[in-house]
Amino acid sequence: MRLLSTLIIALCTLCSCTSKAQEAKTLRQAQGELKTETMKSIVIYFSRSGNNYVNGDIVNLPVGNTKVIAEKIQKQTGCDAFEIVPEKEYPADYGKCTEVAQEELNQNARPAYKGNIDLSQYDTIYLGYPIWWGTFPMCVFKFIEDHDGFAGKTVLPYSTHEGSGLGNSISDLKELCPKATVKKGVGIKGSTAKTADVSKVINQ
Q1: Architecture of domain 40-202
Q2: What angle, rounded to 10 degrees, do the helices at 138-146 and 94-106 form?
Q3: What pTM did the predictor assign?
Q4: Is residue 87 exposed (0-12), middle (13-18) or buried (19+ Cβ within 10 Å)?
Q5: Where are the alpha helices (DSSP H) in 92-177?
Q6: pLDDT (tens digit per residue) in 157-196
Q7: How many Å from the N-terminal Cα to the C-terminal Cα in the chain?
Q8: 50 near 92, Cβ under 8 Å?
Q9: Domain boundaries, the chain
């Protein structure tokens, strides 16, 4: 009789532990699902309006090509957006701007930018930039470094250019973001920005 009582108590204890373990597992799953549902995407970009090189000519653009693409991505996906704006404006003259950009690259400079954003709520980042001297502008380097190399996030890069494609930007990005998943990237010719299909960026 004592043995039977002991067995019944042991069985009840086992069932109770199993039930608690199942409850804990269900709670973890629910928390994981909630996290997945609440994580968001964002397009982060650097863009230059004003004098730009387009199809062999210097053209005054009211909206930079990279921003045009960013706005399309935002409209199509409903994602948030953040523009990387340098604290010190680049020269309005295209030639002088390229000189400053080259000097920053040669000095491995990290120009400051305006504002900031908490990226903890985002798991997917569309990253847009023009190609300046073979890669993205140096203030984009600084932004990435300031945000832990986008660790744990999926990065979908795109560039705007007039013949440089993606340049060295993807290898630079992978070096800056060793703990992120960096996709292959899409190069978009700036002169086609207004008519470009951004699905290639979104579906990398």
Answers
A1: 3-Layer(aba) Sandwich (3.40)
A2: 50
A3: 0.81
A4: exposed
A5: 94-106, 138-146, 169-176
A6: 999 999 999 999 999 999 999 999 999 999 999 999 999 9
A7: 69
A8: yes
A9: 1-38, 40-202
